């Protein structure tokens, strides 16, 4: 990306296309799903919008060209995410969570697994994918020596893997009918590890809806639909696998190789959480700015002429610009450098941590601009705050996971602080 940050023709085309989809189907989504009381019913009501996203190439666009997809750069993905999140976060998360669910296949790129991508390349239907990782007991320390590790296990019996365990928070994991997503990338551990290193047991199994249907009833079950403060039309339920058998060919990452792919998948998504944050900050700023220019709060002049209001809004605007710049730099650096993988990864982590933390502060500041009127549910601020509050704690919580990963990088003997800006120092 040039230092002047002007969008390339391709980037500008993607931004305009995303803005068009956002101002059309996405803009009407809330009016549709809020007719339903239960969150899982709201999720199901968004299925026609998701179908439009599939037909419009938003799923195929999350698969790289060498695997038959139409995906572009990570910077282009960040631009797309910002435009859509600024309008409708819940449906957008369903769309982009399918991309996260496909990321392990994108990263491994094995020819023998291309058949699993077919539904997502067709441009038809409403196929959902999910990266199924989090568990009820938490996963922040799942690779710590001496810990029990993941509770979800896979045992090889003949030419089949037998899956057991419980998962939670994995967006799209249960599919539209709650009998399983079209494709789940399930992170689990083998019951026969090669060493006492917890990472040696971590593997990834591919589970399709066809696999589930071949099994006995109740091998896949939703234990609880989790109601959430924000993203109230998404689905990330508490699920359970009981003796779910899948073919041996469904092994995407053998034991000992899964942890690295999980980490790399979430490095990519870290950048996109930065873009989600920018979208929410932008929407909050625009709403508060419109209010400050049109309301006098009983005075003689519009609110924006008040120094305190202008200071709050200018601060939010600067934070939004800074977060966008960091997100774009991280996206570009992840794919192009400079620096080795550790330096590139550090920027992705920084984008996730800094931008998501800044987002909650920014929305709170716009609420302070508007005052008590922001508490009115006809205003967007409560929804924006409820959406913002999850950004620091999902996709790898900032405190328990993301900052710890940055700490590990800084503790390494060959840590090179500015390699992602200027290249290696030696």
Features:
426 residues; alpha+beta; eight-stranded mixed beta sheet; globular
Written account of the structure:
- The chain has 426 residues and is of the alpha+beta class.
- It is built from 14 helices and eight strands.
- It has helices spanning 9-26, 29-33, 39-45, 47-55, 74-85, 89-108, 118-121, 209-214, 258-294, 307-336, 341-370, 381-388, 398-411, 419-422, and strands at 129-132, 153-157, 160-167, 183-190, 202-208, 220-224, 238-247, 251-253.
- Strands 1, 2, 3, 4, 5, 6, 7 and 8 form an eight-stranded mixed sheet that branches.
- A hairpin with a 2-residue loop joins strand 2 and strand 3 (160-167).
- The longest helix is centred in the middle third of the chain and has 37 residues, at 258-294.
- The two termini are 24 Å apart.
- What distance lies between the first and last C-alpha atoms, to the nearest angstrom? 24 Å
The average pLDDT value, as a whole number, equals 96
| N-to-C SSE string, H for helix and E for strand | HHHHHHHEEEEEHEEEHHHHHH
Radius of gyration: 22 Å
- Tell me the fraction of residues in β-strands, as a range: 5-15%
The biggest beta sheet reads: 8 strands, mixed
What helical percentage do the residues reach?
40-55%
Please report the total strand number as a whole number: 8
How many individual helices?
14
């Amino acid at each position: 990306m040039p230092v002047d940050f002007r969008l390339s023709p391709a980037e500008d085309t993607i931004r305009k296309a995303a803005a068009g989809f956002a101002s059309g189907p996405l803009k009407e989504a809330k009016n549709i799903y809020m007719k339903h009381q239960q969150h899982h019913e709201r999720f199901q009501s968004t299925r026609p919008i998701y179908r439009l996203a599939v037909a419009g190439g938003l799923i195929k666009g999350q698969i790289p060209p060498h695997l038959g997809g139409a995906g572009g750069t990570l910077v282009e993905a960040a631009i797309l995410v910002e435009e859509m999140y600024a309008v409708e976060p819940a449906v957008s998360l369903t769309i982009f969570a399918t991309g996260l669910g496909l990321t392990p296949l994108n990263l491994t790129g094995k020819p023998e697994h291309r058949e699993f991508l077919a539904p997502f390349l067709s441009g038809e239907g409403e196929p959902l994918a999910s990266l199924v990782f989090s568990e009820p007991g938490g996963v922040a320390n799942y690779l710590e020596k001496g810990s029990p590790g993941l509770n979800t296990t896979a045992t090889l019996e003949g030419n089949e893997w037998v899956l057991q365990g419980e998962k939670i928070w994995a967006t799209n994991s249960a599919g539209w009918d709650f009998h399983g997503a079209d494709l789940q990338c399930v992170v689990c551990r083998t019951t026969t590890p090669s060493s006492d290193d917890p990472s040696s047991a971590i593997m990834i199994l591919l589970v399709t809806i066809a696999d589930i249907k071949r099994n006995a009833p109740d091998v896949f079950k939703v234990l609880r639909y989790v109601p959430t403060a924000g993203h109230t039309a998404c689905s990330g339920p508490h699920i359970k696998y009981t003796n779910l058998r899948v073919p041996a060919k469904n092994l995407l990452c053998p034991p000992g190789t899964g942890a690295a792919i999980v980490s790399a998948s979430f490095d990519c998504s870290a950048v996109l959480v930065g873009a989600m944050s920018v979208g929410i900050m932008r929407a909050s700023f625009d709403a508060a700015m419109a209010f400050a220019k049109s309301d006098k709060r009983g005075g003689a002049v519009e609110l924006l002429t008040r120094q305190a209001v202008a200071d709050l809004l200018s601060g939010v605007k600067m934070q939004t610009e800074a977060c966008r710049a960091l997100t774009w730099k991280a996206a570009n650096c992840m794919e192009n450098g400079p620096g080795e993988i550790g330096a590139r990864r550090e920027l992705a982590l920084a984008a996730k941590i800094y931008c998501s933390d800044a987002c909650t502060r920014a929305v709170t500041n716009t609420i302070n601009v508007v005052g008590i009127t922001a508490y009115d549910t006809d205003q967007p601020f409560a929804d924006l705050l409820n959406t913002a509050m999850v950004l620091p704690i999902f996709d790898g919580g900032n405190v328990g996971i993301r900052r710890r990963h940055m700490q590990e990088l800084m503790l390494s003997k060959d840590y090179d602080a500015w390699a992602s800006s200027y290249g290696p120092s030696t």
